[in-house]
């Protein structure tokens, strides 16, 4: 039992934080956000130089064999700086699919390209009607000679517009909501029949709706079993939730810091408003939520690669419930404690608020995970020790 | 970072569970599960059982077990979850650390072995009718008279004073300085002439707390801990320790197990209560918060080994705040489980008897009292509001 970071992990944390402190102030972010492609290619190169894009991949593939704790460190720093680049889409999501589902040839081709920052990926797992059910797949993949033809609509594809290649979930067998019969296909973003409608998200990132009309995919671009990819999808999703929890904690911490600083400087009635107990206690509530969330983000990181799937799902859902609930408390209180200035786009806190609220909607909100946890029997067994 | 317990730690947990099964009297366990009050003999015997296994937190040189923070955590959790004790023995958990940190050699030599052996039952004389959250405004006076202090005044909310052999008190020795600077820490024999105790009945029907009156009580000057007028510092350390155990993770886990066990036997609207979505969701909201609290406590415990001795991690206020909230929520869930049969009231005598046929379904009898009592969890040992003040000042710097 120890909560300390190793020497290497501390170095990783320091180097990411230092980079973002220098290059990711709110004004920088605004600049990156306003241009195309909606984030900074220069920062993407810096992440590659630091090795962040290679972090979770094995050393044989040219990676650093980082685990969930390393991802947690990076995502927390990214949350703190509100970064816009497609790290989560490329490295955590699509990278996760490659790590857990791809064959050696596919990894050898793509992982070095990701690591060096040459190729960006996205993961098209959702559809307009799927809400949070990863197995709800209407998009079809039909066998066609020595390849496949993909048709259907994928929605909310994070950074789908900037991606060079897109991992698409599509059904090869079974009914719309069957867990069996789902395959994963690596699709070139410029393939004939694939159309992307990109758009900004509420929190300043980018996403896309993607339609596929008989898009041809070669057999070599099928990832894993074309009828049995669901276990990979759900493990990638659980690892993604752990990463999102860390990102949220990074944002929460900064939200508390910004709010406390404001309480220490803003004066009304001739006093610093931080001297009013009614406001102090709300700030204390924010701290409790932050620390409870931090604890659960650590727990999620520890359990993200747990082999017992039920235990893993329980832990991940518990963490996402905590993060979702805390996002509301910390988000609402941080705006309220600022008053009018907190409602403006000029000021920082609203940007954090919008981001943590949107994080709740990714890979299942708190209510979704509460139900999932209920179906798994909760966290406590009825049996006495 | 590795949040799993090692093989040795897991073995320690297993051995501990076996120890509790072998040594805690089944009747004591049953009473604790049902929330019935224990007799003094049962409490003393229970504390002796635990002390025999080892004393967490104390340094080895004073008889502590020398366990790692993880082992200390496991011990605390298992004792609560068994359950083997509902409340810590104030000797081991509160006054012992004050004596070995601030006491003189003679005091250490006399009191510490007696605390370990539970020769004396200790109670805490801090709060007064006019000094609750504003504890430093306490007025019980101790005036030096030769080799003695003469004590006059009144303490209140004194837990289990009716059983106590000794009381550790904060007393005012200098009324003319800033209030925190005129307080001393005094050990008083409850058998001293002039000490009297009046029990206070709480809204759960029980008699856990008391008023204690001091009428010209002569206390030997050698019973002063540390230096005169520095008692506030010592009390702050003690209160920090008190909150350290304020998370009650093991106890809340045990209670959630019990809620699930009872809810599987409770029928509502033609189905088992435990199968109803609205009830499940309430339970799971609490389970999630409890898991987070468990991890937070482990972080505080892991950090404690790095903290300066006698300095309290202000994060322990988070444990107390959240731990109290969860105890209150789980007590509410127990009420939800039994529904209308929360209504019948049983006197202490009827509870002790235990041989009467149940009124209505055979639900445990103490559920409504447990719920009523749970409101105290955000009042005692520093109210919720005081904990927030501590967080505000010590962590947020406001």
List the helices and strands and how they pair.
The complex is a heterodimer of chains A (385) and B (398).
Chain A: H1 7-23, H2 26-34, H3 41-50, H4 68-81, H5 87-101, H6 104-115, E1 121-124, E2 140-144, E3 147-158, E4 165-171, E5 182-188, E6 194-200, E7 206-218, E8 222-223, H7 230-265, E9 267-268, E10 271-272, H8 277-303, H9 309-338, H10 349-360, H11 366-375
Parallel strand pairs in A: 1-4
Antiparallel strand pairs in A: 2-3, 3-7, 4-5, 5-8, 6-7, 9-10
Chain B: H1 7-23, H2 26-34, H3 40-53, H4 69-81, H5 90-102, H6 105-116, E1 122-125, E2 141-145, E3 148-159, E4 166-172, E5 183-189, E6 195-200, E7 209-220, E8 224-225, H7 231-244, H8 249-263, E9 267-268, E10 271-272, H9 277-304, H10 316-338, H11 348-353, H12 367-374, H13 384-395
Parallel strand pairs in B: 1-4
Antiparallel strand pairs in B: 2-3, 3-7, 4-5, 5-8, 6-7, 9-10
Helix pairs in contact in B: 1-4, 4-8, 4-9, 5-6, 5-7, 8-9, 8-10, 9-10, 10-12, 10-13
Descriptive notes:
- The complex is a heterodimer of chains A (385) and B (398).
- In chain A, the strands form 3 sheets. Chain A has a 4-stranded mixed beta sheet, covered by helices on one side.
- Chain A is globular.
- Chain A starts with 6 loop residues before the first helix and ends in a 10-residue tail after the last helix.
- The longest helix of chain A has 36 residues.
- Helices cover 50% and strands 16% of the residues of chain A.
- Chain A is an alpha+beta fold and 385 residues long.
- In chain B, helix 8 packs antiparallel against helix 9, helix 8 packs parallel to helix 10 and helix 10 packs antiparallel against helix 12.
- In chain B, the strands form 3 sheets. A 4-stranded mixed beta sheet of chain B has the order 1-4-5-8. Chain B has a 4-stranded antiparallel beta sheet with strand order 2-3-7-6, with no helix packed on it.
- Chain B is built from 13 helices and 10 strands.
- Helix content of chain B is 46%, strand content 15%.
- Chain B is of the alpha+beta class and 398 residues long.
- The longest helix of chain B is centred in the C-terminal third of the chain and has 28 residues.
- Chain B starts with 6 loop residues before the first helix and ends with a helix.
- Classes of the chains: A alpha+beta (385), B alpha+beta (398).
- The interface between A and B is large, with 48 and 55 residues.
């Amino acid at each position: 039992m120890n909560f300390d970071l190793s020497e290497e992990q501390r170095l990783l944390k320091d180097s990411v934080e230092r980079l973002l402190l220098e290059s990711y102030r709110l004004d920088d972010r605004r600049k990156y956000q306003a241009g195309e492609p909606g984030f900074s290619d220069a920062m993407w190169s810096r992440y590659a130089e630091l090795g962040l894009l290679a972090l979770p991949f094995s050393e044989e593939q040219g990676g650093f064999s980082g685990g969930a704790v390393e991802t947690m460190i990076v995502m927390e720093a990214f949350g703190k700086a509100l970064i816009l680049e497609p790290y989560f889409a490329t490295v955590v999501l699509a990278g996760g699919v490659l790590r857990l589902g791809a064959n050696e040839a596919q990894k050898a081709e793509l992982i070095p390209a990701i690591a060096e920052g040459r190729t960006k990926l996205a993961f098209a797992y959702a559809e307009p009607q799927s809400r949070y059910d990863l197995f709800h797949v209407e998009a079809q993949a039909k066998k066609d000679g020595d390849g496949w033809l993909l048709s259907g609509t994928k929605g909310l594809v994070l950074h789908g517009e900037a991606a060079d290649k897109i991992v698409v979930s599509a059904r090869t067998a079974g009914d719309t909501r069957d867990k069996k019969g789902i395959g994963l296909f690596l699709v070139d973003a410029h393939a004939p029949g694939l159309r992307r409608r990109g758009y900004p998200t509420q929190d300043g990132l980018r996403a896309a709706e993607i339609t596929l009309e008989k898009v041809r995919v070669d057999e070599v671009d099928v990832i894993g079993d074309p009828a049995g990819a669901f276990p990979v999808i759900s493990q990638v999703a659980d690892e993604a939730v752990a990463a999102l929890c860390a990102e949220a904690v990074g944002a929460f911490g900064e939200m508390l810091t910004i709010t406390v600083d404001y309480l220490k400087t803003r004066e009304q009635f001739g006093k610093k408003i931080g001297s009013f107990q009614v406001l102090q206690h709300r700030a204390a509530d924010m701290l409790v939520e932050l620390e409870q969330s931090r604890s659960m983000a650590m727990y999620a990181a520890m359990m993200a690669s747990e082999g017992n799937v039920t235990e893993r799902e329980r832990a991940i859902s518990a963490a996402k419930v905590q993060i979702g609930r805390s996002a509301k408390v910390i988000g609402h209180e941080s705006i309220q404690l600022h008053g009018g200035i907190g409602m403006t786009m000029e000021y920082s806190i609203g940007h954090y608020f919008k981001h943590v609220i949107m994080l709740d909607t990714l890979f299942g909100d708190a209510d979704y995970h509460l139900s999932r946890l209920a179906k798994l029997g909760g966290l406590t067994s009825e049996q006495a020790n | 970072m590795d949040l799993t317990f090692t093989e040795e730690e897991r073995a320690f947990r297993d051995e501990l569970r076996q120890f509790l099964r072998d040594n805690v009297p089944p009747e004591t366990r049953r009473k604790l599960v049902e929330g019935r009050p224990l007799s003094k003999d049962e409490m003393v015997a229970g504390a002796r059982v635990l002390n025999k296994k080892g004393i967490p937190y104390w340094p080895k040189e004073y008889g502590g077990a020398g366990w790692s923070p993880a082992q200390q955590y496991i011990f605390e959790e298992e004792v609560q979850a068994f359950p083997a004790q509902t409340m810590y023995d104030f000797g081991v958990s509160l006054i012992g650390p004050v004596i070995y940190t601030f006491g003189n050699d003679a005091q250490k030599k006399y009191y510490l072995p007696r605390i370990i052996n539970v020769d004396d039952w200790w109670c805490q004389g801090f709060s007064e009718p006019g000094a609750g959250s504003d504890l430093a405004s306490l007025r019980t006076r101790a005036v030096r008279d030769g080799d003695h202090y003469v004590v006059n005044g009144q303490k209140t909310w004194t837990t289990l004073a009716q059983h106590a052999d000794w009381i550790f008190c904060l007393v005012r020795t200098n009324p003319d300085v800033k209030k925190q600077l005129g307080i001393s820490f005094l050990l008083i024999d409850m058998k001293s002439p002039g000490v009297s105790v009046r029990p206070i009945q709480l809204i759960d029907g029980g008699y856990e707390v008391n008023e204690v009156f001091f009428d010209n009580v002569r206390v030997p000057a050698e019973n002063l801990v540390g230096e005169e007028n520095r008692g506030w510092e010592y009390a702050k350390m003690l209160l920090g320790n008190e909150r350290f155990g304020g998370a009650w993770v093991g106890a809340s886990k045990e209670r959630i197990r019990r809620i699930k066990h009872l809810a599987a036997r409770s029928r509502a609207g033609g189905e088992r209560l435990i199968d109803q979505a609205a009830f499940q969701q309430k339970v799971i909201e609490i389970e999630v918060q409890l898991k987070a609290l468990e991890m937070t406590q482990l972080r505080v415990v892991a950090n404690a080994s790095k903290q300066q001795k006698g300095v309290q991690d202000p994060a322990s206020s988070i444990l107390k705040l959240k731990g109290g909230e969860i105890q209150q929520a789980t007590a509410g869930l127990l009420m939800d489980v039994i529904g209308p049969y929360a209504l019948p009231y049983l006197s202490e005598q009827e509870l002790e008897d235990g041989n009467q046929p149940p009124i209505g379904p055979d639900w445990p009898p103490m559920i409504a009292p447990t719920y009523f009592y749970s409101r105290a969890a955000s009042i005692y040992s520093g109210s919720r509001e005081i904990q927030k003040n501590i967080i505000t000042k010590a962590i947020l710097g406001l």
